[in-house]
Amino acid sequence: MGTGSVTRLDPGTGPDRYQRAHDLLVETDAQVAFASFTFDPTLEGSVLLIPDSVEENGSVPLGGTVPSGRVLSDGKSTWQNGIDRALAALEAGDLDKVVLTRKVTVGFDHDLEATTVASRLIDQQRGCYVFSVDGLIGASPELLASLDEGVITSLVLAGTGVTDESLASAKMTREHVLAANSVRDGISNHVSVLDSPARTILEFGDIKHLATRFSGPARNGASVLDLLATLHPTASVAGTPTEKALDLIREIEPASRGRYAGPVGWFNRDGEGEFALALRCGLFESDHVTLFAGGGLVDGSDTVGEFAETELKLRPMLQALGLE
User: Fold this and answer.
1) How far is it, in rounded angstroms, from Cα 50 to Cα 34?
2) What 3-state DSSP class applies to 82?
3) Coil, helix or strand at residue 264
4) Which of 83, 198, 274, 296 is the right S-S partner for 146, CB 3.0 to 4.6 Å?
5) Distance in angstroms (rounded) separating the CA atoms of residues 306 and 121
6) Rounded distance, CA 244 to CA 240, Å?
7) Please, are residues 244 and 188 in contact by the beta-carbon 8 Å criterion?
8) In 3D, which of 204, 210, 228, 207 has the Cα closest to residue 154?
9) What domains are defined for the chain?
10) How many angstroms separate the CA atoms of 137 and 283, rounded?
11) What's the pTM?
């Protein structure tokens, strides 16, 4: 974790933002940086944090209490309007998959302490990537990309349920395959040999996902930031084909996702690092929080099932906020 004072920088927009982030780290003569990038690379709002010093394996006090809160907006009507348009586009054959986001606003009696919420997530969401970067706090189960000692790894999760049986449908399989293929195609250019074990089911808390893990030795010169530039946004958070999915998301979602579903993690001067997708998270602003939950839509998706999936994905953050 970062300690002491922290320098906050803006890596900008566009496909070069990852290279600019690396250049900014080098310019500050620091060894490591933490970053949270916007979902849409054309939009501003990405954050680069460079601490004076870093404490590895630092302990975080677990538990803590949060002030009383209440849901101010469940986001259902806005989400419903969007899903109707998305399902119509899928039925027309305009694209194969699109991921739609639901936003929920929660208000509190007093300002929230970020460290308290993050510590509760660490305690409650074992096995997830817990992050707290400039007001964006969450516990993501999905590893977008890591590079450690010359080995690249990515964990794709798509298809969500509470039992193995709920993940056995053709719809769940199709949703997952499209996501896995997008990562496989992107990561192949950066490894000399790609290893991909059979698809499996992984459980995080009480939520299960279809999962595919990719790994392989990095080609000479590859960095974790190169992986971000190639992989993001994957079909897990955008859809297939990517550009058509992005265009539809921009058209039907009434507000930007900001850094939700963007890469969040750390990297060093040598190009090593680890980035999750910013999922199961909320944007904290004094006495209120905007929570996010997304779901992948494919042919065969239905409104009732997709809404239930967003409810399931909101549960970790609501639990951490004492509102489940």
Assistant:
1) 6
2) helix
3) strand
4) 274
5) 24
6) 7
7) no
8) 228
9) 2-54+68-320 (3.60.120.10)
10) 7
11) 0.95
Q: Judge if the upstream peptide bond of residue 263 is cis by omega within 30 degrees of 0.
A: no
User: Which residues participate in catalysis according to the annotation?
Assistant: 97, 142
Per-residue pLDDT of the chain (324 residues; tens, 9 = 90+): 555 689 999 999 999 999 999 999 999 999 999 999 999 999 999 999 999 877 776 556 666 788 888 999 999 999 999 999 999 999 999 999 999 999 999 999 888 888 899 999 999 999 999 999 999 999 999 999 999 999 999 999 999 999 999 999 999 999 999 999 999 999 999 999 999 888 999 999 889 999 999 999 999 889 999 999 999 999 999 999 999 999 999 999 999 999 999 999 999 999 999 999 999 999 999 889 999 999 999 988 999 999 999 999 999 999 999 997
For residues 24 and 7, give the distance between their C-alpha atoms in angstroms, rounded to a whole number.
Answer: 11
Q: Which tokens belong to 171? A: 């719809």
Q: What is the DSSP letter of 199?
A: P
